[in-house]
Write a structure and sequence with these properties.
The complex is a heterodimer. Chain A is mainly α. Chain A has one domain: Orthogonal Bundle (MetI-like fold), CATH 1.10.3720.10. In chain A, helix 3 packs antiparallel against helix 5 and helix 6 packs antiparallel against helix 7. The longest helix of chain A is centred in the N-terminal third of the chain and has 35 residues. Chain A starts with a helix and ends with a helix. Chain B is 32% helix and 26% strand. In chain B, helix 3 crosses helix 4, helix 3 packs parallel to helix 5 and helix 4 crosses helix 5. The chains are: A mainly alpha, B alpha/beta. Chains A and B meet through helix 6, helix 7 and helix 11 of A and helix 2, helix 3 and helix 5 of B. The complex binds adenosine-5'-diphosphate and magnesium ion (MG). Magnesium ion binds next to helix 1 of chain B.
Amino acid sequence: MNWVANNLPLILQRTGDHLAIAVPAIILSFVISIPIGWVAHHYRWSRGTVLTSIGLLYAIPSLPLFIVIPLIVGTGLRSPVNLVVGLTLYGIALMVRSTADALGSVDSNVEQSASAVGFSAWQRFWRVDLPLAGPVLLAGIRVVSVSTVSLTTVGAVIGISSLGSLFTDGFQRNITAEIYTGIVMTILVALVLDLILVMIGRALMPWIGAVSPRRAARNARAARRSGEVTA
Amino acid sequence: MIEFRSVTKKFPDGTVAVRDFDLVIPSRKTTVFVGSSGSGKTTLLRMINRMVDPTSGSISIDGEDTSTLEPVALRRRIGYVMQNSGLLPHFKVIENVATVPILNGVPRRRAHQEALTLLDTVGLDRSLADRYPSQLSGGQQQRVGVARGLAADPNILLMDEPFGAVDPIVRAELQVELIRLQRDLDKTVVFVTHDIDEAFLLGDQVVILETGGLIAQVGSPSEIMAAPTNEFVANFIGAERGKRALSIRSTGSGDILVDSSGRAAGILVAPTAPDAE
Ligand SMILES: Nc1ncnc2c1ncn2[C@@H]1O[C@H](COP(=O)(O)OP(=O)(O)O)[C@@H](O)[C@H]1O
Ligand SMILES: [Mg+2]
């Protein structure tokens, strides 16, 4: 505990480094997966190929990937950008399938009726399909978020600073408290990001759970009794 | 006026939903397509607003061939109401009703104002405006669906079994409500149902369909009831049996009408002056 008290600035610094890598990777995974997931969902022939090949990205071992990326992207070996790129690839590997599933989860009656009243394909995608895919998208991005926060620590091995640096440094200098701090903080960051995602989901999808099923049933009964008959 | 000229629709899987279909749908009247499930009613309706394109033949609206019109623009000037309302679950009631005007570029404020008026028109309380569809009863949802269909003030209103999923009492109210609306609004309504009673109640022109969009009979309800063209129609409308086959029975206190099972169904009165409708 002493170690923690004496090293608060360091812990904060590492947490900041960690977030600066994980958060962009999570956002990029989400954004990039939307068009790819749409293609996989929309063109039946592409679904198997796209989902399988992208899913395989996740099978690439992380350490070699983080070493190869700078060679391709042209950044320095220790640049956090490498890690963001690598983590985004892993995120996409998980998120494309979720996106395709999410778009597939939208009630086809609702889609048809949106087209029937005059949404163009583009308008329907942004105003109907994507929002209604929200719950499944949210479930997907929550998995990506946890996975990304945990994978970010791997960068410490090749010298990219994050909460993982607390484990590597703790091991080298044999400071148990530092190792534990690294682990606890990583979990805490994952939990906080997850909470934030859930809150964003609530804010963006107010129609979900606007009313409990039981209350809806009661409303419906009451409406039939009074409103309907007199209206 | 909507005109089908030798329209055939064959789906990619080989199903011929509609074969060589000819029909004129008069303006400002209600035409009802009635037939059992799979007879091609929905396909016919959807060919009017180009949700489905015919394999051959043509459909014209007021003389304009719809295949020359841009589908999205066409749909925005034709109201569409479907079973289970087809409301957007993530839009509030008011947003659902205002959808089409907003797509047409009407400013949101004004569209919402007009949507409130439409809630009055379909007999819904304005306090429901900020609810989501899941917070309404089935009957209320259908009313919102009708309000949405009317929002762009279309000349044509397509209705695909709009009252099919609500209970009989609510359905009866909605039917009466639609008759009232139609009297005030004077739209060209094309209504699909599998319920012959609903067809006779609502239709100025009733089109009885057999499988494959085959027309068994077209006419006003009274024409069809008085002279079913064949056994299929007679069976379909239940002319030979049930509550439509009425006969006069004399009782001690006067003549009454009874149905085929002998239940009292009404009395015979002198004809009233023809209704203005
Ligand atoms: N998209 C489609 N693909 C293949 N067959 C279809 C499609 N839509 C409808 N059908 C078939 O066309 C026939 C008529 O369907 P439909 O117009 O929905 O009938 P109804 O509305 O009278 O129940 C049915 O046999 C149905 O299975
Ligand atoms: Mg149908």
